Amino acid sequence: MSELVITARVLSPVTPQAAVLEDVAFLIDECGNIQERAAKGDALYAALSAREDVRRMPSDSLLIPGVTDLHIHAPQWPQAGMALDEPLERWLGVYTFPLESRYDDVFFAEKVYSDLVRTLLENGTTTALYFATIHEETSLTLARICLEKGQRGFVGLVAMDNADLCPPTYRHADAQQALDATRRFIAAVRALPGNEGGLVQPVITPRFIPACSDALLKGLGELAAETGVRVQTHASESDWEHRHVLERTGKTDTEALDGFGLLRDATVLAHAGFLNATDRAWVRARNAALAHCPISNAFFAGAALPVRTVLDEHTRCGLGTDISGGYSPSIFENARQAVVTSRLLESGVDPDRSPGERGRPDSRITFQEAFWLATRGGAEALGTSAGQLLPGQAFDALEIRNGRGGLRLSPSDDAERCVQKIVCHVTAENIVRVWVSGRMVVDKVDN
Ligand code: GUN
Ligand code: FE
To answer: What contacts 107, CB < 8 A, 6 or more positions away?
Structure first.
């Protein structure tokens, strides 16, 4: 890839509470990293914008950082928007394990995974942390499709061996088989042709404690320490799941995962609504993070993650779609729902209770904070240098075209207003171009 020079009006988060809106010139190096970011008025801006190879973004476009989906089940894409009539523990057995067991079919997997990765890119998801299935060949297919389409992909071969919970048709025969498969998968992803830059990374993925034997969890913790590969799992998602782990191990999910060596730098715990303050202190101590999945939580969790507290105590956190516990492939939709859920947690929802007894005070988060969670929050969770369009970070960016869909930005809107409108109104309809590490991976307009 050759060097890129772009001038654009940019909206990017600075902290969880603040964003900047400015005219910027970028110099992007051959590796797709931002070498220079110069604001209008600087000498460097003038020099870059005078270059012959400059690409000028139209005045009705706004450039924002790409977003991260910090928790998504790729094989569940065919059932997104259906099958949400059962509680989690039944939903897994009735719908989800039977669907996931079909991914020994390469043709089926190719079709679903290609469609999903394209859809996510069109929705602005430049980075995704995926659960695949237990099947090595097609989980590698997902990694290859991310690479081909240019998405930054963190892909996990799911490990699950507990016969009490997992059906015989969809589980590893024993811990050793799951460990051997995970080890092979790590090597295979790292060796994918074209992946020399590491755009796609393997992830150690125990499904959740109930689906795994102690031997498997311990073995995966040792493998993480040996290889330095990131870990993802579900933790304290619902009353049932949280209680199940307490009864089996005498510990919370977080304590138990830490005991197995699975709570590590950049470990992502999905859902995590029932973590207590001590659990979250361990998450911070280990540099791990939470994936907040507000849509899914409305169906399965039975409670809302207290994101206000999570942000105030500086626990790392990003947003996940949790396809198909959540129905939407859009992180922007989940950002909206994160704001809405926090407001409902604050006010409460039962009109028969008096206002003072209805909710949990001081629980709201702002649109600005949701913008942070979607962009820098997710990137920070994974330890990737992206999410703010700053020098040194990857050029992972979205061109948003004003006037499309419901988006109506006005020239007098300041950064805060723009953030509100962006979070509320960005859809695939107004995301017209997408770049990942400087490579344009979606291009839907001529000008
Ligand atoms: N816990 C274990 N597996 C799953 C899954 O596929 N989705 C959700 N939401 N929770 C899980
Ligand atoms: Fe999930």
So the answer is: none
